[in-house]
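Ticket reopened. Same input as before:
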Amino acid sequence: MRVLIVGGGSREHAITDAFYRSVHEPVIYAISSNANPGILRICKKTGGELIKGNINDPMFVADMAEKLSVDLVFIGPEEPLFHGVPDELEHRGVPVIGLNSKASEIEKSKAFMRRLMWKYKIPGRLRFKAFKSIEDALAYIEEYAESVAIKPARQAGGKGVKVIADIQAYLKKVKEEVKKKHAERIYSQIMARYRDIEDKILIEEKVEGPEYTIQCMTDGESVLPFPPVQDNKHAFEMEMGPETGGMGSISGRGNILPFITEEEYKESVKIIEGVVKALRKEVNQDFRGVISGQMMLTMIWGPTIIEFYARFGDPEAVNVLPLLETDMIDICEAILSRKLHKVKLKFRDKATVVKAIAPRGYPNRRDLAKGHPLIIDEKKIKELGGRVFYGSVNLVNGKMLTGGSRAVEIYAEGESIEKAAEIAEKCVRYVRTADGWALFHRSDIGSPISLKRMIELAELVRSVYTYRKSRGILGKYIDWIPGRGKIVYES
Ligand code: GLY
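Engineering reply: fixed in the latest deploy. New output:
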């Protein structure tokens, strides 16, 4: 069997590793814009190779899949999906795991996703407004003083999300200016790059609570969920600094997170199943691949959708794929033959922590973060109980150079999240640069203090949403208008 992996980050390294463990002993090929040392090593061990090239070019990927006579293509990142790589492969009869361009709108267009949830009345939906022009967005910001999340309406690699709480009336004007400036930045800097979407800016109601990701594989009918993982998006400790693609993540023993109940997990999976069903109706096409709910426990709904990914998360995939005991090729074959409902996933029962290590400059000055030689003592990291998953690294003439994003992710597992975090922390110091350029990571991820904070926040949110549920007002808003009384409306 010959498998082709598309993409060159830590997530794809973990996917490649999952295929490498298959009893079917596939020959593994990869296409990536960078020579990822981890993926390259696995490909070579199986007799395959890593081909450098444009992963977003459907013709290039499909030509290569045909030339290599692969039996299966697995697509890791979102942009090849948006660019129609799976569509071209399907058109040529090459089996592919990756949502086609129409179905991947669920991630690409945040307005499409919100409209879908509203149209099909799926629980966990938030109030939103989408704007095609900056003028309309600015007029709305002037008219309504609300606590909001302002986002690019397209998936833009996690960039540009800003949450602004508007509670102090005396700061209304200042907050309005901040909101307007941010909307302008999204419009002129982030969205200017994309010509493949009409909606430009999304303004959503602000919600608060612990976040978690549920990654699922789907054959377009059934949904096979993985254990929940919590990613940490901010660059620096205690949620400071700019948003990144994710600086590290945790998963708990018993395949659950310590701040999410079994019932909340099941409720979250039901929401994802509802969206897959609605998506199938809406796009009126078969699709197969990965769909992940990036969720939050909120006071208004309990489990709530913040975003969807049409793929595994990065770093979230690195938490769960090393624990997967079910054969990756068997799962993919079940997806391709639409028999996913027959598969039961098995995972080793360990808590895991993943810590991303990035060069200084990431995420806002990737030009500065790029091109620094890395020295990684993999032997020492292994002795300590950790593993290295290579990310934005390019192997050039035997030297590993940083690519400007998260360079590596350290994976550790243990009997508890805290224990796994301790191992990961010890391993981090064995990653450094040869030119002295600073690297950073988040020491707080998986620490007792951050877990405690998360558990307390979840308890608070849970007490409110379960009360609302008992009163039959889950997902409903209540306004009091003098002279008219109580107005209840649906979220
Ligand atoms: N960890 C966030 C993402 O994969 O986009």
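The mean pLDDT is 96. Residues 158, 231, 245-246, 309, 313-314, 316 surround glycine (CB under 6 Å). Please confirm and we'll close it.
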